[in-house]
Design a protein that fits this description.
CATH superfamily: Phosphoglycerate mutase-like
Radius of gyration: 17 Å
Strand order of the largest sheet: 3-2-4-1-5-6
Low-confidence stretches: none
Helix content: 25-40%
Order of helices and strands: EHHEHEHHHEHEE
Number of domains: 1
CATH topology: Rossmann fold
Number of strands: 6
Mean pLDDT: 93
CATH architecture: 3-Layer(aba) Sandwich
Strand content: 5-15%
Shape: globular
Structural class: alpha/beta
Distance between the termini: 18 Å
Oligomer: single chain
């Protein structure tokens, strides 16, 4: 039975400051480091042995992946990093305080930007100082693939090819897989795996630092789901 473990990165510095993060490359907060260490210990206690690990190209997810593997005595496990597992891009909201943004635009509008499946945030221009177009880790991308802002629908469309080309084949080969990524990239993949509706996905929250285990059938449908 294939086994898939999702882990949202531990609390980040901007999570702690209540700021929209998206593709901004911020580090883990000290609490986030402890969350990832504890997650690794839980994985070890559960006896889960990985064959391969996948993560994004953002520091907070990479460090979480490393800490999970290190603290489950599996730091040697091969890792593959991909921009397709990045957090959703929050456009011009990135770096803004969520409370102050709600005071400016209203709670309902901010809730829609944060949780709606198909509503885009205000978009960032390619010439903006914070644009991913200026970051060399995305230099190999066609400029049309560099987002100015994403909703969950676009995030899923971006992540799905990586699922189909990398993660699913590993699972079909009966490998045990770790995906250490972000709240929204994991929500997008969970929507696909679990067949969650566009409406119900708004209510799905994946907490930081808590490994989520999927035991899968041979056709990759979910047989069992639980947190460690």
């Amino acid at each position: 039975m294939p086994k898939l473990v999702f882990s949202r990165h531990g609390l980040s510095e901007w999570n702690a400051l209540n700021q929209f993060t998206g593709w901004a490359d911020v580090d883990l907060a000290p609490e986030g480091v402890e969350e990832a260490i504890e997650g690794g210990r839980k994985i070890k206690e559960a006896g889960i042995e990985f064959d391969i690990a996948y993560t994004s190209v953002l520091t907070r997810a990479i460090k979480t992946c490393n800490l999970l593997l290190e603290n489950s005595d599996q730091l040697w496990v091969p890792q593959i990093k991909s921009w397709r597992l990045n957090e959703r891009h929050y456009g011009k909201l990135q770096g803004l305080n969520k409370k102050e943004t709600a005071e400016k635009y209203g709670d309902d509008q901010v809730h829609i930007w944060r949780r709606s499946y198909d509503t885009l945030p205000p978009l960032m221009e390619a010439n903006d100082e914070g644009s991913a177009a200026n970051d060399r880790r995305y230099a190999m991308l066609d400029q049309r693939d560099v987002p100015g802002g994403e909703n969950l629908k676009v995030t899923l469309e971006r992540a799905l090819p990586f699922w189909q080309d990398e993660i699913a084949p590993a699972l079909l080969d009966n490998k045990t897989v770790l995906v250490a990524a972000h709240g929204n990239s994991l929500r997008a993949l969970a929507k696909h795996i679990e067949g969650i509706s566009d409406e119900d996905i708004m209510d799905l929250e994946i907490p930081t630092g808590q490994p989520l285990v999927y035991e899968l059938n041979d056709d990759l449908t979910v047989a069992k789901k639980y947190y460690l």
